[in-house]
UniProtKB/TrEMBL annotation:
Coiled-coil ranges from the UniProt annotation: 150-205
Coiled coil as UniProt keyword: yes
UniProtKB keywords: Coiled coil
InterPro entries noted in UniProt: Phage_T5_Orf172_DNA-bd, SNIPE
Coiled coil as UniProt keyword: yes
The protein, known as: T5orf172 domain-containing protein
Transmembrane stretches, start-end: none
One Pfam family it belongs to: SNIPE
């Protein structure tokens, strides 16, 4: 038993250091898993197995320790009954406190909860000192492990929800792109039929000059249909964009993303919805036959400047548009059009109406 106490002491001392380190990381939005598992169901299975072990200790009467030779009114039997009854009461109080700690976990902060449970175990040992009563250190370690697992489970569930939300958004974006491309193909087909009909009439009327002009336009439509069909068939084709929002994030942060939308500016306008105070400024829009690879290469180039180190699907980076232009030029060669300085019209116009104490000094 003394060996278990030493293990508990060592575990608690090492855990305090680890939890303190986690607390510092959590303050900046980074959570380190105590028990890394692949998914939330895996955590639920581990918790179920842990609960079975705790139940076994309770049923076997080993969850709480106490003296075996305590007498009451000169009776050893009465003393043992008193110890058993009081032990059940103490264990119930301890488990109630542990359950409250589990329910009260927020933001994966196990430091406060584990200390609270330590104090509960210490209080029981102090109150039961006459009967040498205390929570079994092995049982206490199981309940501390439960706290860590529940904290990990909560974070994993949040990650899975965020991933599912982003996947749904990607699917909606893909469906919008497919719908736009399909509608564009239908429009081009109708326009082509119209031009073919008019071209036939012009030739019947002998107007070869107008017919030649119409043939040139017909060739342009055929090229547009070919390009549209290519984008429908090639899911990796699309636009890579570089945008910023000075009013929301400051001058040294950009978002690097890609879209398959027929009109990429529609996607950028959607990003500037009510979730940010101002519209985004577009620095570059580049069509690529493999936009997915190009986007990933840009993300890798600025990986060390990522804003969100917890969720890699957040595409914001601490970089200036000029720095991104340099890297983008290396990847694709010359850029026909790139804007280093954002217009930030809404931000500039709004800034003059802000109270003096919150108004920034410069753009």
């Amino acid at each position: 038993m003394r060996e278990l106490e030493n293990q508990l002491a060592q575990s608690e001392s090492s855990q305090v250091v680890d939890v303190n380190e986690q607390r510092v990381l959590q303050d900046v939005g980074i959570y380190r898993y105590s028990h890394p598992l692949d998914s939330s169901p895996a955590y639920k299975e581990r918790l179920a197995e842990l609960n079975r072990r705790m139940d076994d200790m309770v049923k076997s009467g080993t969850a709480i320790e106490s003296a075996d030779m305590f007498t009451w009114n000169g009776s050893l039997a009465n003393g043992r009954k008193l110890v058993r009854d009081l032990g059940k009461l103490m264990l119930r109080a301890y488990n109630a406190e542990a359950d409250n700690c589990v329910r009260a976990l927020r933001n994966a902060n196990v430091q406060t909860a584990s200390k609270r449970l330590d104090r509960s175990a210490a209080a029981i040992e102090k109150l039961g000192s006459m009967m040498e009563m205390r929570i079994n250190p092995a049982f206490h370690m199981l309940r501390i492990e439960e706290l860590l697992l529940v904290a990990d489970y909560q974070v994993k569930v949040q990650e899975e929800r965020e991933r599912a939300r982003e996947e749904r958004e990607m699917l909606r974006e893909q469906r919008r792109a497919e719908a736009e491309l399909k509608a564009e193909r239908e429009r081009l087909d109708k326009e082509r039929e119209h031009y073919i009909t008019v071209l036939a009439r012009l030739r019947e009327a002998g107007d070869e000059s107008a017919a030649r002009d119409l043939e040139s336009r017909l060739q342009e439509i055929d090229q547009a249909i070919e390009s549209n069909d290519y984008r429908i068939a090639n899911v990796r084709a699309g636009y890579v964009y570089v945008i910023s929002n000075v009013g929301a994030f400051g001058p040294d942060m950009v978002k690097i993303g890609m879209t398959r939308r027929l009109e990429p500016t529609d996607r950028i306008r959607e990003l500037g919805d009510a979730s940010v105070p101002f519209l985004y400024d577009t620095h570059a829009l580049f069509f690529s036959e493999d936009a997915v690879t190009l986007e990933n290469e840009l993300h890798r180039a600025f990986a060390e400047r990522r804003v969100n180190w917890v969720n890699s699907r957040r595409e914001f980076f601490f970089a200036t548009p000029e720095e991104v232009r340099t890297v983008l030029s290396e990847k694709i060669g010359g850029l026909l059009e790139y804007h280093d300085v954002p217009d930030a019209l809404e931000y500039v116009q709004s800034r003059s109406s802000w109270p003096p104490d919150v108004r920034p000094k410069s753009l």
